[in-house]
Fold:
Amino acid sequence: MTRLEATRAICTVAGDAAIIASLGHPAYDLFAADDRPRNFYTWGSMGLASSIGLGLALARPDVRVFVLDGDGSLLMNLGSLATIGLLHPPNLVVIVMDNEEYATTGGQPTPTAYGADLDAAARAMRVDATTVRTEAELTAAVAHQGSRVVVAKVTESVPTAKPPLDYVGIRDRFMTALGGVRG
Amino acid sequence: MTNPVPRWAAGVCQGVHGAGSRDVVYVPDNPLSHVLGQLRERLPDVRLVLATREEEAFGIAAGLFLGGKRPTVLLQSSGLGNSLNALTSLLIPYRIPVLVVVSMRGDLGEWNAAQMPMGRAVRSILEAIEIPHVTVESAETTAEVVRVAGLRAFETRLPAACLLPRRLTTGA
Structure:
């Protein structure tokens, strides 16, 4: 499964979930797969997608929150797993697009290429976790009540599109789509 | 019998609450323990979220804002260094406001040389990244200064910082 295929599979089952995408290729693929108003594309703050998703999940318990993270990105903010394990919001699913490389910066291998196990890391922080390798496994894994980390083993696919560099526009569209809030 | 609450700490709580913030993300430090204790005891409508690192705290705060909340981040000044990428590549470009309450180290009364360089640099760093800051000068004015800093953040949709010097928080 390529990352784009995995992203498309998530979009088909996302419904009205909010999706927070980590910078670079995860955000590019989300834009290419389905540019939904409930997508929040980050253009920086590497590592923080799961934290943004956690804050949103706490603020809006009525909204399902999906995070499209990367293996390199989550490795920058492993403490986030401890915080999610502490608070365990029932509406947060962090999907780690684990291609075992820093694809956005040229394909340097990440520690997961040598056996670092983000599924085990999540479990160690008391977060439910699973690893998937097919689109069917992925869509089943994200249909979950309770916070969860889904490590999706993916192959790199060269992104073909990028979201606009309109940061405030991304924010405003997202917040308007979620409704009931002021930007 | 309860321990007396320092007046400045009660003021921080009042200021946070008065600015409409009901979500406080924090990385603890010693003076801030007074604020956290007071929030727990007196303001049960405020949600406290412990972060493992200051940068993470700002990420959580950003998500809270996207969900319609008015977040506050409490941190020690040493943690500002951990926060710069979140501030400059998320909160500022996306115009995500946070009331930032900074317990200062490295100013008058500091005993630990490891705290001095960052303590000296805090204001310069905030100015370099164009985050407005104000320093609380007395316990009596704490509530109002924190509240106004919060309103500045939430009305302008940018982070705004409120600095708590050690002479305020430790009586140095």
About this structure: Residues 82 and 125 of chain A are 5 Å apart (CA to CA). The domain at 3-178 of chain A is CATH 3.40.50.970 (Rossmann fold). The radius of gyration of chain A is 15 Å.
